[in-house]
């Protein structure tokens, strides 16, 4: 007994761990919080700040010390306080690191203060919360709301927390919300009252509420909410996402509503999704960190060398100590070993500048400036959508110039995602609609004549999309600007005359039989299929009917149609599955009464035509359809073109106007929404003409075709149905070959008993918390079987402007482009031809396997000869020519085969084959497969990857790639919010990568190398002096110059160059995309360049040290009088070096260099004049003033920089001459590409010669082969 109770308690604890129980706060006294079961839940106060007044300093320093460079420099500054090893004045040594930490701290403090102001403003917004004591709603701040409070919301108010909807002033118990702040979607969404509160005849009274809510723990899934509500009577109703109003959404079209707070504050879904900007480390930054490590090693070697030298120098004196020897703090003499150890620490302080402390700060400043100028580029602005480029990751701009693989979605990314109704087939007869939206297909969209579509096909039905109508040349109001209406292309549909005549004929026949009370079953099946086809297009969707004058107000039906609704309101919704319990009750009543309740109102002896003078009459032109998907809008407008119009939608009813029949109200019993697993959508309605429970289904053709009842061939009817199936499948193949998106339409008639049985099982699935998705999926499968095929549709999704040209340019830039799409294979292939991803002369390898065994034994993976073009005879050049052969291949693989190919046993083979192909097209890919493909290529090939998409199904691959790009398209903002960069159009990717990416990479790469050079060159000056001072750690340069040389005197010019320098103009970079290979191959920053830079820095330091040394030899100048010219010459050399590296000079470059030189001399003159004994025993008094009066100083300023920079100048000039010569010879942009052209030309000549010997012809021209490898076009032919 005890063990049983213990087991129950453990189960209960486990259950409570997975769920949340919410009680009403009305039942508990607020002053006695310990009695409230909701007391453990988060309050509604938002705090996004990181610091308080007391915690700011320690916490901010702790965060800054996570950066190794800051820790290093603080350690060096503190080491300078140790007397035996200090090199500078301790206070002065702290100045640089304190400055860097202070600037960063001030920036963090300002950002945190802005967050604090925002939090305060949000927390002090007003809301109406029900008071237990005053029995009315009282105004309170948002932060005072608690889980379990009842909140009243009014129109246009923002939700303060996640609220479960219990009451609405809307007669249909609906609430319309706008979720733009959460997912970027501007179309309205409907939320419905919890089913058990639908039948309230009066206003909701919170004091009478006594139910308990059991729901899931707080999570960040915006598309899911599971739970149930238990009433005192024991009744339990399921809770869904359509019952939950999320924090941050705005109430629309509803006077007021009431709900109970479920999640508050930081536990709301909006706050859980607010992760802030993501941090990524760029490839250049990783390489820079490696070189910083080398700088540390060089520093330690120099310090060790100096320590050993000092020890040996001290050792040679033996017992005779030098008169200038410094004793220990205790007054004792130091041994050579101990002196060497102390000197080692001292040299670390002296040489600390070798580690560029300002490099990290400078890089952040330059990246922010680069992002600003990218934002100002008007070429990246789209006037139609009024959207700019967005940069959401500031620290990877340089990665844009090093991309190697691009993974792109198709729908909405390469295409417009604006649908045009092109084709349909009904009852096996095809009807063309080529006049819609202009020409059927551009000429470039027609695939090669010898290409034949395959048999394995599937369609796609996207969800969570919206489309915006924006008339050209006009500025919309705020209301219409955020209304998801269809584009003019979707509206303007020209009906097929033959099909229109059949629709009218069928309607007249139905009207005649209805008027004479005859059975409609006597109609020919082809006619009933036609009318059912358009009824399905009209009602099987989530389209909301709107009025153009008030686009956010839904259109209601007239008073007569409102009487048709049953007195027992079910819980159906256009957005989710309705409640099953009320529907079961209604079915039981009908069973006892012998007929449907209120059925007589659905029939009218005279067709109920409406006229303009009648109340509630609406012309078709006065209605607008607000759709979540462009596909849905196109199909509804297509049905309206055939006079089958959707005129009203209520939660339990859809009103359709048919020709001759007038308005018919379909009782909506259930809706099974579209999902990516089922790939279909179904509605269960009661047909007003036949009183039959009918299921209308639309979805992907491969899925629907498997659910169609295969008729027998024993009778003529069965043979006819098989013939219709065969014809429909052929038409689907043709639609896909034309690049159209296909959907199949089907229906099913159920008896009331069959539907009641299904509904009871569905009720159990709805009320489950654990495994609810799987149970609902299985329930939907039981409903959507044994369907009757009505027809199919073909909708065109047009290419975006500039897509073929963009892909061609990116290919010339050496980028490999893979398209990962959920569309069917034939549709994707046709679009690939249209956007020039596939060329007419490409050899296409199509890989479709139905098992992993067959996939592993595929000729593709085993490299059978026929999979590739015939190889030439064996020759020494065969290895080189093979690359030309495989670059003309295109690989097409479907989703099922891709799942097998991504298995660990086949992934390397798949990758090897894919690398050999010029184009890769993955069809029917799931979001998970997309991310797996990107991850496979990135990890296995060690390449830089970019993923671009526009929908929620692209988020996973966008986040996996090195750089994620979102398109601000028709499918909401999920992809944009998950991306690093957001673009208005796909064509903008060309300039973003080829121009801005190239510039950002080139600027930062050169700036980093310049930093290493500058610091090493300056430190080496002190190192050479150690040979003349017994390695004592002394410096001939004043410590003020040592500390502030990199921080002030030489900092500004490199920031200007790193922000504005352009090695090649924008026009040239776009005309010659091959220049992008410079970044792909890391030509600007290779590992050896670091060492070349360091060698150059040490050489220049030798020149800057020994020329003044020789000039002042045998003179009586003091140390600082000799050291100050060295500092001046080093500054001049460094600035002139930067000028030589600068490709584009602007007035800001001149100003920055002039400012640096002027700042140095100003500080030197003021310091030497005002501080004679600041840091004794050194005496810098009047040093710079005396030097400026000596001709020798000016001579050194001319000779020394020229001698130091002469080798670099000569090398650069020679390299430029060679590059220009080869570029002129081969029409190429640089030496590397020209050399590749030369090699490729030789290989091509050998291949053509061997090919002629065997085949007596050359298979491809030289220019075509060179194009496939990404090098410059040549006009030489074989």
TrEMBL record:
Biased composition (Pro residues): 867-876
Top EC class for this record: translocase
Entry's EC annotation: 7.6.2.1
GO biological-process terms attached to the record: phospholipid translocation
Chain residue ranges for the region called Disordered: 1-42, 437-459, 548-583, 596-616, 861-881
Location in or out of the cell: Endoplasmic reticulum membrane; Membrane
Domain P-type ATPase C-terminal: 976-1210
Listed Polar residues bias regions: 548-558, 574-583
Ranges of biased composition (kind: Basic and acidic residues): 29-42
Basic residues bias locations: 9-21
Ranges of residues in domain P-type ATPase N-terminal: 35-91
Keywords: ATP-binding, Endoplasmic reticulum, Magnesium, Membrane, Metal-binding, Nucleotide-binding, Translocase, Transmembrane, Transmembrane helix
Amino-acid positions noted as binding ATP in the UniProt annotation, renumbered to this chain: 409-411, 632, 674, 698, 741, 821-823, 924, 930, 953-954
A GO CC annotation given for this chain: plasma membrane
Catalytic activity reported: a beta-D-glucosyl-(1<->1')-N-acylsphing-4-enine(out) + ATP + H2O = a beta-D-glucosyl-(1<->1')-N-acylsphing-4-enine(in) + ADP + phosphate + H(+); ATP + H2O + phospholipidSide 1 = ADP + phosphate + phospholipidSide 2
Binding residues annotated for Mg(2+), in chain numbering: 409, 411, 950, 954
Topological type in the membrane: Multi-pass membrane protein
GO molecular function term, any single one: ATP hydrolysis activity
Cofactor(s) needed by this chain: Mg(2+)
TM region(s), chain numbering: 65-82, 88-110, 292-317, 337-361, 1007-1028, 1040-1060, 1088-1112, 1119-1138, 1150-1170, 1191-1210
Designated name of the protein: Phospholipid-transporting ATPase
Originating organism: Oncorhynchus kisutch
